[in-house]
Amino acid sequence: MVLLLIIVFFLMLLLAGILVDVMLPGVNSILKIIIAIAFAFSVSSILFVLSVFLQIDFTVFLVCWCIVLMVLIWMNAPFIRAGIIQKNTGKQVVKAPVLLAGFGILIITILFTGVSVRWGRWDAWAIWNMHAKFLTYPQHFDNLFTGKISWTAADYPLMLSGFIAMWWRAIGNAEPITPSVVAYITALAVPLTVFAGLIKKKKLALPFSILLLFAFDDDYMRQAASQYADNLLSLFYLLPFVLLHQTENLDKEKYVFILIGFFTAASAWIKNEGILFFLVFLVFFIIQNRNNVNRIKYFFAGSFLPVSMLLFFKFLYAPSNDIIGAQSWQAFQQLANVDRYILTLKYFASRLYNQKFLAVLLLLLTVLLNRTYFSGFACRVLGMVLLGYFFIYILTPHPLEWQLYTSCSRVLTQIFPAVIYTMAYELYERSLRKELS
């Protein structure tokens, strides 16, 4: 069974690689690989969880999936042959970005191994790996939604848990290696996406510096090794902004916006916070492209599969969220409680100062050198998401200090790779424009 799943997932990666190569011809290979892996990861999770909900036999599911993938790859055989011919022409040279990325991977691997722990930390035990265990044993998976273990947040979407469970089903038992490998790959993907997204011509100093700063960031590495879904969510927050900067080839523009729609919506299949991100991004995207209906249509086309899966899960299986379900008039009275605002602002400021040095440094540089960033699309989206997080704390029915202590670092981890990338990109573009002028 494991061998069959390995074959199926290899075919899935191959197909994703073909599609990304066709959709994004001018994009560097590092970014293409990350996008293909993230796409294959998302679709695999959706299809597997759907098969569990529909009670499809796992072997039948894998065989059918394998056949469909082989047919799709056969249909795309001309693109594969063209890619092989193109890669075999001329001298093959290991380029500087690949060497620098390889060095970054080595550093991250060493430091990740040093902070990684078996089975991850508390939320991995209580939520993500717990949900994966329910999905691993389909005869018992619906016990997750009984409400008898409310502390496990059964309303959380299932991308991470579903992917882990898919491999556990194939292996035959729940083991700690799979969630560790997923956490490790995600730990690599986030800084490498920032690095690859910032590569411009032969200017590599800033991208490589930020890659190293991620690698040596203790807070980032601990969060990445925790086996929580927050680092995965940060990758899916990041990818749409990176893709927005890949629209130079107008012939392929529609594919870029399909992928943006997919990854933005897929963030909602990772955590409930991703739903907020998707809605905020969608509103600002429609406003910005109100005179270009085609872009909006492509965005919705890309978002169709993740949104459909999310709605299917939320309406048919997921119980009420503990924060939303507990809202009352008393909770809304908390909006007038000034002390709650002060405490929340102090926690945010403390975490920024102590754990997000790179973001604070880039923020200061942006204020000094590129204030137009604050009126741009990225700042509006990320600022509204951060504001949404802030008011969730204000309205929470749980003890506020406990809620902040247990989650503030994690929610900042979700958003700050995208903040760092977008600020760095704008500063980078500004410096390149100055050189050309």
From TrEMBL:
The keyword Transmembrane helix applies. The keyword Membrane applies. Keywords: Membrane, Transmembrane, Transmembrane helix. The chain crosses the membrane at residues 6-24, 31-54, 60-77, 98-120, 149-168, 180-198, 228-244, 256-286, 298-317, 353-370, 377-396, 402-424. It comes from the Bacteria. This is Glycosyltransferase RgtA/B/C/D-like domain-containing protein.
